[in-house]
Amino acid sequence: MQRYGLQPMSLREVSIEYSGDIIAAGEAYLAETPVLLSHAGIQPDLFLRWSAIPRTAEAIDVVAHLHGFSQQGGDMLLAEKVPRSGLDLARRTRPTLALLPRGNWIRHTYYDFPALLDGGLDRLVDDAVGQFARAGGIARLEVDRFILTAHSGGVMPAVDALVGAARAPDELYLFDGLYGRDPNLGDPMQGLETIERWLGERLALKPERLGALRVVYIERQTGPFSRAVGNLIGRRLEKLEPALAPDATRRYRVEPSGVPHGYVAAVCGPELLADPAADLDWERLI
Question: What are the strands, taking DSSP E only, across 14-74?
Fold first, then answer.
């Protein structure tokens, strides 16, 4: 039996506003998303936010964010995670649809995202884009750039979701959540090979699709794994053509956070969605 914390709706019931031939920026909560039905928790289970999008658009960018733990446990409302998700599209210049799926409550404060494994992330994006296109009166929308962000307990599930995904993200932003694995269950650095594979494939693409990998961490919590990713980046960047290195060095970085754990995604997300090569000027940001 599903539990509801907000009045559920589908995109067919959402009032999409127009300004001429432009779909105005907006947002909505959706319930009983097919891909997420196996997740335990309170409905609605998907938050959407979109920038202004021309009705003539043939492709849009998609940003998906995986949230972390919640002190509310299984009673968490998805609305709790929106303000600190970093899904602020105000400074994006490209038509963009943002997704915030509710995870699967395991126990206590813990959430994971098993429905997004084995291609589930692809299905979530395709379903959301398809629903949005139909609601906006657009015959067909393709995904141009795909950006995956995650915070805290959502980061390792985001790494795991890469394994079976057909659509690799162009940009990957990991906010203080590279905790590693329980050493009692196996290799604590499992997942590093996934990031290395994605990184190699990403950097091998055309320069105009250079992408980005930004990791922001707090040493006490996620330092060892994050610094290991930094070492991977360093080795890969050494092999780049000299002409590409300056831009890539700005887009592929691992750096310590200047804000507390709970605010990393909220502070860094808008900066990186506006510019994947942005310098995180902590004095200005806080």
Answer: 18-19, 22-23, 26-30, 42-43, 46-50, 53-54, 59-66
